[in-house]
Amino acid sequence: MTTSSTGTAGAQPVTSGFAVSERTAHLRAESALFMRDHVLSLVSHDLRGPLNAIHSWAYVLERKLDPNDPNSQRAIVGIRNGVDQQVKLLETIVDATRAETRSLALDYAPFPLHPLLDETAEEVRSGLARVRGVELTLNSQLATEQLNGDRERLAAALWVMLTFAVESSAQGAAVTLESRADATSWHAAVTYEASTALVDTSLPHVLETFARKQAREPREANRIAWVLALCKRVAEAHGGGFEQQDAAQSAPATLSLRVPLSAAAAR
């Protein structure tokens, strides 16, 4: 188990009944921003299909109606105008709002991976795990490996993964961060035992209430919990990937991050 201590100066914002550092508060706000844009992306995607179908069926219906019936023609025009207005809203409001995280700017520089793991794990320990009575263990096979990418963005992604796992864990449970590197990529996997602690209002929490509630709901195939959107976006911006795997039988739940060691080449 590898640990290190990091200090955070400044005021201590209060979240869910306990004080958190400015760093934790900043990361919480970052995760909320990416979550908002992820939800907007889903709204934009999921509404376009039905709107296109309505538009197509309007043409089919038009051919069945009496062209000399003014009421029928007004109805068809109303349907088309309604669809056009909804599509315009998606383009001008929904798509424009999420533009910042959709085209994510990255500050590329080489950095050693192991200190990143130590610092982020300690941030989560001091920010939530200790007060929740959850043990956070780091099992790293890394030595001097470096990654060419945005260290701050990747630290935020790792923080969200670990914080979500701690939020999901009951008192006395263990969360494990496994990390390794192969010839081309860095891999980080967080495993935990999911419980009702995620939505237990008697416990201290860092993540947004509605995000934790949504994370307990069934997900469609290949979709992640909204609160993990930052992890997915940061990984993909580096040319990597992110996966959320729910618990199966006696196996723990897993969050997996993969990023190329030479991430800048994937831009």
TrEMBL record:
Annotated Histidine kinase domain ranges read 42-263
Uppermost EC category: transferase
Q: Name one GO molecular function term.
A: phosphorelay sensor kinase activity
Q: Which keywords accompany this UniProt record?
A: Phosphoprotein, Transferase
> What does it catalyze?
ATP + protein L-histidine = ADP + protein N-phospho-L-histidine
**Family matches, as CDD domains:** HisKA
Q: EC number(s) in its UniProt entry?
A: 2.7.13.3
What is the protein's name according to its record? histidine kinase
